[in-house]
Amino acid sequence: MKLGKFLFAAAAVTALSTGASAGTLDDVKAKGFVQCGVTTGLAGFGAPNDQGQWAGFDVDFCRAMAAAIFGDAAKVKYTPTTSKERFTALQSGEIDVLARNTTWTFSRDVNLGFEFIGVNYYDGQGFMVRKSLGVTSAKELDGASVCIQTGTTTELNLADYFRSNGMSYESVVIETSAEGRGVYEEERCDVYTTDASGLAAQRSTMSDPSEHILLPEIISKEPLGPLVRHGDNQWGDIARWTLGAMIVAEELGVTSANADEMASTSKNPEILRLLGGEGDMGAQLGLPADWAKNIVKQVGNYGESFERNLGTTTPLALERGLNALWTDGGILYAPPMR
Amino acid sequence: MATETIDGPKRGSLLNDQRTRAIIFQALAFFLVVVFFIYIGTNTVRNLDALGISTGFGFLDSPAGYDIAMSLIPYEATNTHGRVFFVGLFNTLSVAIAGIFAATILGVVMGVLRLSKNWLVSKLVYWYVEILRNIPLLLQILFWYAVLITLPHPKQSIVFFGETFHLNKRGLYMPEPIAGDGFGLIVVALVVALIIVPIMSKMAKKRQEATGQTFPVFWTSVALILGLPLLAAAITGFPVTYDYAELKGFNFKGGMVLRPEFVALWFALTVYTAAFIAEIVRAGIQAVSHGQTEAAFSLGLKPSWTTRMIILPQALRVIVPPLTSQYLNLTKNSSLAIAIGYPDLVSTFGGTSLNQTGQAIEIIMITMLVYLSISLLISMMMNYYNKRIALVER
Amino acid sequence: MTDVTPSNAPGQHYPPGQHPDLPPPPGTVGFVGWLKTNLFSSIPNSILTILALYLLYSAIPPIFFWAFIDADFEGASRTDCASAGACWALIDVRFNQFLYGFYPPDELWRVYATALVLILAVLPVLFDNIPFRKLLFINTALLPITGFFLLSGTGSGQDALLQTVETPQWGGLLLTMVIGVTGIVASLPIGVALALGRRSNMPIVRAMCVTFIEFVRGVPLITILFMSSVMVPLFLPEGVNFDKLLRCLIGVSLFSAAYMAEVIRGGLQAIPKGQYEAAAAMGLGFWKMMYFIILPQALRIVIPGIVNTFIGLFKDTSLVLIIGLFDLLGIAKTVVTDANWIGLIHESYAFVAVIYWVFCFGMSRYSIWLEAKLHTGHKR
After folding, report:
1. Do residue A79 and residue C244 have CB atoms under 8 angstroms apart?
2. Is ipTM strictly over 0.95?
3. What CA dihedral angle connects B334, B338, B341 and B347, to 10 degrees?
């Protein structure tokens, strides 16, 4: 406790000395790293690997921010958060940005005082069942036992869906996705419901993935995106354009392999603006001129990050689907960088 | 020291007066606590303001929007968070009461067996106690849940009592009695029996004190409580029908069901707490001097009477206070339900409702107050009981 | 009993007092006798014995076969476990995670060093006849500081003596021990203060202490942990925040302090009034009386109680998995979510159950031993 008191006092003193500081960017620069809130473990999106290093699609966003600010994608520290504590963690300043497959909803954006800076994954709630049940549609699930993770919008969507279709179900509530998989594999429930990407992630780690199918119904819109605190617009802009730069880089064909080369040889003014060869976008954000080049070089563009963590070569084997570029039939669309 | 006169303390500075110092010290302590709470309060208000969460209890009237698998009162997703609170509270109470009941029986049996002259039985109970009370309860709950969900699938249910009971990984399905016409008479009969029994036992006690004649209170009570309703049932022609559980689609429908979440929690709480109760009972019985038994035997009392009239009343005095804290622990431990998704107060109201509304402070405070009230209530009841059985010194 | 044995053979006469000792009647000594008196002394007893034997027969052999005979001890994933029994390869491969969580492998020596420091710190508290006890006590007093810097490091960067290891990387038995030991060490001073406050003559102080103690003892630990993980960030001014582990430690410490206060109050009540009066007669003030006379005696009596509180706390640390910390049980749950090891939950639980059991059982034996020792010392 003595130590605790000491730390309390120390924290209070630092708070007094830095409490009046201007913005998150200055704080982050001063401490030398981005404190990023992530999940406690969701395959593909954010989980510690064998060496205990965090990796995943959401984690890549944190790394991209660090690359933009410091020119070094490794300058991130991760705070695993449960669905219960994620919002208080962001609000209290424990984390600078929350990249934790969080659904962008009206009440979270408006009521809770956060700013969603964009959508990095378009998702929707789906159902997974065993093939052996012979179910082909969610409409046939009347009377089923449904495994569902507590503390999420999925619980409300599920209740709405079954009620509007006049069906009943038995909910089997679980705390984490890892538990849910165990309970589902033991057949405590017939159906597992969560975001479709999460279902794919779950299925990939089943003992025999081919035994399970995802039902065609997607019962909700789940635009997942990173968020920051309301009120610090500069920090919000940096986060928004970090994501924007990754998407634009894919649109322009800039990859981690050719970023350096393109910066010096390209004649395309858009590419030059992105990579810092023209204009002063970096300075306007309060960042170095080569901020976006660092993102693409160290983390990769949106497509690279997707393929590395979620794509068809990974155990998750997710198709781009809605998350393909608008030019390829998806709805991924970044505002122009000019 | 020796040269000082004995005039009593000098009226020196006020600071040296013990009573003044006590007042100053208390005022200071009180002041600090108040400042602490004001500090926390202002911070919280400011933070909630920034988060855009309105404080207050208005959320209790807003619709919850999610379903709960097990409820003792009618509940639907369209009901309010206020109703969720009661659903959770009753689920907590039901598992706590069932746990206290079963743990007491198992604990007393184990405690008595621990003192058995049978070497093997005594050793077995010793290891039961030592193994179970030295492993975290949470682990035991998770273990029993993991065991229960390896039971067969509903389609291969274990069937007993002629296809009326079905046991599978989704629960134990039983026929549900449904009251027909004239069921009220049975209830009336039960109430009448419950009123007669205490009066009778008081009269019997009076008679025994006056005349020394005894009356078989226990068996008469059992006969009354079982017999009267049964008689009423016979008169009205057994107005109870049963709703049997049937396999329809994915699951059994109808009937009553004990879900594995409930059973795992209840079972783990029971065997864990019973290990502690066994030790308490053993210590209580050993605390009664052996001379008491010998004296009772020399008076010609039967062994069963000796246990009932001599040993138990004395042992209870030692047993009841620690037993109270075991009951309190069991009730508080029932909050571990959240680990396996049993919808108790903490996992429904304190979990999902908290997440949906963001009213962390109100909800955690209400939850804590509920447990505090339950604890105080159990303490009060047990203290009352303890006072009744306590040794009255003349 | 009609056998003719030399001792009761007819015709033998001995002078009074010279009769050689008769052998005990058959069936009262030896193995059979032991069986008769201990297992089959009466019909109900015999039934109990047979029931117990059946219980043992139906429980022990299957468990034994599962855990040892049919088990696989080596392999790289669950597919290497071909036999029907347990798959201990999981424990083999993930052993370090069970013990240290995600602590960087290069820095593991610091965990060992901390363990050594901890053992040296605990020894003089537990046993009063070991050599260099005074010297070791200095180490004990410094434990919070040495432990903190050893585990969490002195800073990051090239020139730092010990690289910082973030608390999310701590886990497994290490985290369980950190929470348990910190909880008990921190709760001692708070508990003493609360116990003294509860026995104080000052009504306001007493009321505050009683309120705190009864409130904390009346609510489940899990609600306090929720409070520390969800509510505490709201209590602090904007921009100030604690590490999640630290918040959890504060919650656990306050929780165990309330229980500790009651244990210590028991010790204070056991000190005869004469001790207080004698101290007051010597002219000692309240704090000196407590420091020199009362507390040394009271704390000595309650060491078994403190150990029992610690056992309870040690088991309760498993609850932190509910707020997302990877303690021993948390690790046990997460390792079986790896695709390579999925479904081996029984092995994982069994392993951590054995660890918990060894610690708790060992401590409870110590407590019993100490109680017996102290009891003789205080017999009048």
Report:
1. yes
2. no
3. 100
